[in-house]
Design brief:
Helices cover about 50% and strands about 5% of the residues. With about 350 residues, it is mainly alpha-helical. The protein has 2 domains: about 120 residues, Orthogonal Bundle (uronate isomerase, domain 2, chain A); about 180 residues, TIM Barrel (Alpha-Beta Barrel). The strands form 3 sheets. It has a 3-stranded parallel beta sheet. α13 crosses α15. The model has no long low-confidence stretch (mean pLDDT about 95).
Length: about 350
């Protein structure tokens, strides 16, 4: 029996029956992903299996580094064959990890390959996969269709034009909903220059002159309305930590003026700024019937030499350890509820 079958990791008859007769045929509704709407729209073929499997996948990159693979064969200029061989060696060393299961699920369900990938057979498996990649069944839209994806939500900044989401919505032969997600990381940026650049671009995008907190929130509401018109129903936020610091309206307005003046905020002021923005956004979301995702606690770009070398989202983040989290999160959610804005 092959590694991947209808009883894979299901050890009882009831579970196997539920999977085979119910779960297996259900569609995928993906509320959070980092697929590129432009790439889906352009629908270009993949050059080879290395591009399909390894390009941009920092979870695999982390495993390869842990397995002692040199960076040249991960994000560097090594050939596609060298990178695929390095990945095969890593898969072989990852038994018991989901990174062992997932490639074999994909080999089975998309390429009809039952062999387990290892350091001896990688070249043959790569050849068989590359041959199949030439077919139209392996174009991006076809892969999404074959995966029975009913809807997927991308990750998009507040100023994105969502052009390709609109193009996909108008495409008659592609039924999967490709919907934007509102991800306003720029609002929480502590760097004064980057924040001011964002405010300037927001004003240009919305044709609203931003001279006060009221103007700023109105401009954000305008962008949220635009996202809503393109099908967005979900917001997403990734703060390092969750805090709640209450300010009255006068103090909030003054705090915005400090940001508008390019001043660097203290830690307490940053917490107050994040709090007022979270509460204000939550109410806007609730008014439009959106869901609000907050996945906090990721410490980004810990390895600055590698950040400068290979860029953001390349496998050097880690999990934070915020103390007294429950009280802070409860206070923030309560403030949203008090503002009639708990999504």
């Amino acid at each position: 029996m092959s590694l991947i079958n209808n009883s894979f990791m299901i050890k009882n008859i009831t579970g196997q029956k539920l999977y085979s007769e119910l779960a297996k045929s259900l569609p995928i509704i993906d509320y959070h992903c980092h697929l590129d709407a432009k790439a889906i729209w352009e629908n270009k073929p993949f050059t080879d299996m290395t591009q399909l499997w390894l390009e941009g996948d920092h979870y695999k990159w982390r495993a390869m580094r842990a397995n002692g693979i040199p960076e040249r064969k991960i994000t560097g200029n090594a050939s596609a064959e060298e990178k695929f061989e390095a990945w095969a060696q890593t898969v072989e060393a990852s038994f018991g990890n989901p990174l062992y299961h997932w490639p074999h699920l994909e080999l089975k369900h998309y390429f009809n390959i039952d062999d387990t990938l290892n350091s001896k057979n990688w070249r043959e498996i790569m050849r068989r996969c590359n041959e199949q990649l030439r077919g139209s069944d392996f174009l991006p839209q076809a892969l999404i269709r074959r995966s029975n994806v009913e809807a997927l939500c991308t990750t998009d900044g507040p100023l994105d034009d969502l052009h390709y989401h609109q193009q996909l919505a108008a495409q008659s032969d592609f039924a999967t909903l490709v919907l934007p997600t509102f991800r306003p990381d720029e609002l929480f940026d502590t760097d004064p220059d980057r924040f001011l650049t964002f405010v300037e671009r927001l004003a240009q995008k919305t044709d609203i002159s931003i001279a006060s907190l009221e103007h700023f929130l109105a401009a954000l509401a305008s962008r949220i309305d635009f996202f809503h018109s393109v099908g967005c129903r979900i917001s997403d936020h990734g703060p390092l930590a969750v805090h709640y610091c209450c300010l009255d309206e006068t103090a909030q307005a003054a705090l915005f003026q400090r940001r508008l003046a390019g001043e660097t905020l203290t830690e307490n002021e940053r917490q107050a700024w994040d709090s007022l923005i979270f509460v204000a956004l939550a109410r806007m979301y609730k008014q439009r019937g959106w869901a609000m995702q907050i996945h906090f606690g990721a410490i980004r770009n810990n390895n600055m030499p590698m950040f400068r070398k290979v860029g953001i989202n390349s496998g050097f983040d880690s999990i934070g350890d915020q103390p007294h989290l429950a009280g802070s999160l409860n206070a923030l959610l309560n403030a949203m509820a008090e503002n009639d804005g708990l999504p």
